[in-house]
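[#protein-structures] MJ: dropping YdbS-like PH domain-containing protein here for a structure pass
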Amino acid sequence: MGRYIDDILQPGERVLYSTNAHWIFFLPAIIGWIVAGVFLVISGMVPAGPSVLICLSLAGISAIAALYKTVTAWFHRWTTETDVTNFRVVHKTGFVQRQTFEMSVDKVESVDVNQSILGRILNYGDVTVSGVGEGGKTLDTIASPLAFRNAITARPAGT
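AK: finished. structure tokens for YdbS-like PH domain-containing protein:
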């Protein structure tokens, strides 16, 4: 399965910038794996008996939840594409049920970036693309939001 943007490029259109959902989507999974590991370590430290079984059970439950979160975060990143071409801004999410947002770069009125403190440190944020007479769209938790904004707003000569 190829990238969505490669399937929809028009003649003379080229991709100027691509970004994706930030790895912060994996944070719940990372925390779940850490919790599972802690319960596993604790199970080896407590005396034999029901306490070990409880710790191993909690480790297993945490590992299952962490695996679920890992798979869903990976799937979200895999099925989300955000691109800027010399003609359009394109954002696609979903696999079976696909949702797309496309706006001509000529119609972009403003591009707003919203980053939390953690977002500034880890380089992710929400980007709102507003168009002339077309409304707007907020792209949540994308990687490198300032570079994405600059790819939209900084038009090189001749494009």
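MJ: nice. Helices lie at 4-8, 27-45, 50-78, 117-122, 145-153.
AK: one more thing. The mean pLDDT is 90.
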